[in-house]
Amino acid sequence: MSNSGSVAGGDAARRSSEGRIGWLFDPKLVSVALASVAVVVVAGLVQISFGAYSMTVGEAWRAVLDPAVLLDPRWLLNFFVGEGLMRSITGFQGELPELAHGTLIVWNIRLPRVFVAAIVGMNLGVSGAIFQAVTRNELASPFILGVSSGAGLMILLTLVVFGGLSAFLPLIAALGGAVAFLVVYAIAWKNGTSPVRLVLAGVIVGTVFSSLQTGLFFFADDIGVVQSAIQWTTGSLTGTDWEQVRLVLPWTIVAVLLSIAGSRQLNLLLLGEQTAKSLGMSIEKVRFALSGVAVLAAAASIAVAGIVSFVGLIVPHMVRNLVGSDYKRVIVGCLFVGPALMVGADVGARLGMSVITGADSQIPVGIVTGLVGGPYFLYLMRKQQNMGEL
Amino acid sequence: MSTEHANATDSEVPSGTTDASETVDSVGAGDASALDAESLVLGYPNAPAPVIDGESIAAEPGAVTALVGPNGSGKSTLLKGLATQLAPDDGSVLVDGRDVHAMDTKALARKLGLLSQESTSPNSITVDDLVYHGRYPHRGFFERTTDEDARAVEQAIELAGCGHLREREVGSLSGGQKQLAWIAMVLAQETDVLLLDEPTTFLDLHHQMEVMEIIETLRDESDVTVVVVLHDIEQAARLADRMVALKDGEIRARGAPEEIVTEDLLADVFRVDADVVQTENGPRVTPLRARHEDTE
Question: Which residues of chain A does B124 touch, with a Cβ-Cβ cutoff of 8 Å?
């Protein structure tokens, strides 16, 4: 009891000087962020250099940093917000200046795929982190509360039954995920919810929905439909374009800001329901709102990449091992590690087959994340004594 | 057995006397808060019969009230009911005359704090961060910590005597040290009423004494109204201004420790034959043997 006074003063000073963003400069967090950025850059460069039109790394760099695009707000706006919006913002009506061939390929085809991968990684990481706190279970993933099965069922229904609606497939999939989440919540509700009830309800809904989903495969008369359905339900970035970037970016920004704002609530949830409640948290409201944010992030990623497994499970895990359990840092860490994993995995998905078999075909990125994620979890299971409860 | 229903007559102040001076919400200021429960019925959703069936209890403002009773007597349930962790089937809990279930959750958490019997936390959280969580009800959604928060945390950590632990991770602490950290967190909440569920159970003697000293300090130097569930009847007698003995969900006796800790009551409530000797450190209880009613 004697030495508390002296330590106390210094700590109060530390707290107040830390301020609103001081915690960002935690050395562990900074090194995680830097390492992740390095991975994204390297993997991104590989993605950009190789393909049907191969370039050297130097050429790829020059194409990415081509001043004709980077210094021309019209081109940048054209990519990031779309041509229509670009014209109304800048008032520019003529033809955009022509770009070099390499620049065109990099900026039009290869770069958006890297961007989409990075954004999907962020969304899945943040979503998983939130769900793991809400359910207080380390093994929770963005898809644990029925989101993936709902989205998968809607994808199948759209492709097999309502073929005319396939233009809206991303939105329908995201919507299906959100609706399934609400169903799970309704099932779990009985004078309030609890983490265990939520997870169980998620399993129930997941089982029923995936049975229906498998059943629908029998009604698909066309192998093309089946392949497309498999691409969606395993998660794939093939053919992603600036349109996907524009579709997912606004929701991502909203979800990320909300999850950072909610990180203190997440920290409190980790202290257990009793403690959170006795500290005055309206636990049901907070849990539902945070789950909603996580579903938003998951749905956004589903809309552009389908159901990519394991990323949302592993990323928060890795981040927590690296930066500790403070959720402010965990969320920020996920924003970096998620893209690193996803962009890296997509290199494997896009180029892996041609390296291994020489065949010029791509596999869904969800297969690669599963292949990476499984062994990682095996390693964790062997290393850690008690896994599961957070 | 003739001692059944030897309920000590209730000599408490009627609960209606708390007047409208409760608008002062600020910490430490004003008079001590009163906590009253009236004909409380508490049960668990899946249990057929309620655990507590229509009991009333009033915690004396600014004093320490200890709940004692054997396992399964409903003392922890009663405490959970008082802390709104358990919604009552009937009856009401009033803090300074206001129904706790009608209060905003944060406003209530500024009035009434609870230390649960078992608290879990991530292993890598520091004691300091844990104690700062106690300020949750005092902060708005986007508010950062204020000087007021820092002051409350300093005070709580000093009172709980865990200043030397504040940079340590909770996962690396012993059971006793953890308990001190959690107590600091509840103290940082700066509530007028503090409910403690078996704060000394599972602790070694040193930490039991540490916890007892914290409660004594609260009793002697602050206006905080404390209700504490204790397993150890001697500890309870030493610590409490008033004691409430429960058995089978019923309040069997209430009053000052020397009225409660008697051989008759130990036989009735705890089903033990015991010697009770009054000493200057409170009554000393020497249990002799367990009673087996059914063989009599």
Answer: 324-326
